[in-house]
Amino acid sequence: MNNEGVSLRAFDRTRIFRGFMLTPGAIVTLVLVLFALFLVVFLSVRVNDDSLLGAGVSLQNFVTIFTEPLYGLVVLRSLTIAGLVTLATVVAAYPVAYYLAFHAGPRRSLILFLVTLPFWTSYLLRVFAWKIVLAYNGVLNSVLMLTGLSAEPSTLFLNTPAAVVLTLAHAYAPFAILPIFVALETIPKSLMEAASDLGARPFTTFRRVILPNSMPGVLSAAVVVFVPTVGDYVTPAMIGGPTSTMIGSLVQAQFGKANDWPFGAALAVMVMLVILAVVLIVRQADRLFGSRT
């Protein structure tokens, strides 16, 4: 057999092996992602006739969403809270990632372990912990009273949008630290050495070299934090109270107590469209920063 025949058989075996390895992931994607997405879109254009596969099709659910001021207010509140969470998380995560990338030295492994340590506990437990800290008779009020800074417990900490922002920022901090750290770690050290040789001060080097080259990681961190926080409903329900209701809470209520799956699916589709728009904007910004650097 000539060499061409041997190479063709090897190529066929490679294709078969590659297809065999990709099949489980393709099945999971098809069944658990694409089918679920299709079902949500399908339900969103149905009428609520108490049947799962009814024949009624209507856009009334979307008309209600765009004409009822309540849903516009909740969507705006969700975007505002998610934006504040993203800003607070990225701003707090950047110095940690910067220290890890350039100054941690032999302590890097320990700090990375501490950063990922919250993943070892349930998200629900972390929310409960913040509720204990911010509650009327919680840790924060107790400390303020013991130090004499407050004469009585305050109700300003819990059941506020600020409490939701604080809790979500803490919960998603590792998701922001790691992408920024990876982006900083991949910056060639020669660029910073060249800036130093040309007489640039540390702040100028950071502003002109480090920050622009780390923007892909910053934008990735922003997307990773923003996407789940827009639809979060556990934290607003436990920490925020009625004044911090977000779109995820409305979706959960429609699928739960209200038993109006079509309208809940329409709300979910609207959230997905908003997230898609944000991702496209971030992608365009990433291309812009990429062209400048």
TrEMBL record:
Residues 75-282 form the ABC transmembrane type-1 domain. Pfam families: BPD_transp_1. Keywords: Cell membrane, Membrane, Transmembrane, Transmembrane helix, Transport. Gene3D superfamilies: MetI-like. It is a multi-pass membrane protein. The keyword Cell membrane applies. It is found in: Cell membrane. The keyword Signal does not apply. The chain crosses the membrane at residues 20-45, 81-102, 108-125, 163-184, 217-241, 261-282. PANTHER family: INNER MEMBRANE ABC TRANSPORTER PERMEASE PROTEIN YDCU-RELATED, INNER MEMBRANE ABC TRANSPORTER PERMEASE PROTEIN YDCU-RELATED-RELATED. Belongs to the binding-protein-dependent transport system permease family. CysTW subfamily. This is Spermidine/putrescine transport system permease protein.
